[in-house]
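Example: SRPBCC family protein.
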Amino acid sequence: MATSDSREVVIDASPEEILDVIADVESAPDWSSQHQGAEVLERDANGRPTRVRLKLKTMGISDEQTVQYTWTDDSASWKLLESSQLKTQDASYTLTADGNKTKVRFEITVDPSVPIPGFVLKRAMKGGLEAATDGLRKQVLKVKKG
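Written out as structure tokens, the predicted fold is:
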């Protein structure tokens, strides 16, 4: 059964600075505890990743995924192409500039391929949301400071 959740965070950076950090998928293991590795398989004309292979571990469950990214000036999203643990996954970052800050909304829907107890799935989703928002904010501020 598919499960969806979302979370918002405000980051003291421009949408471009935030998208640059999201696009640096190889550094995701530095700021997201769920990411064990990332390999860009294809890039678009702007150098942003379009197809990525990920190694993830959540709640003791390991997964290898291939995802397809889509980029706009104020969003980054991905769809699951292959996974050993999920039937589907759709996720997106939507960025709204607000002066010198940016409101970041992260949304994700996952559908596990095997039954997972609801409380385990909820805890895994919560960890993913925290990494995708708080982890992203910390990494963006770290990159800004140099």
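The chain has a mean pLDDT of 94.
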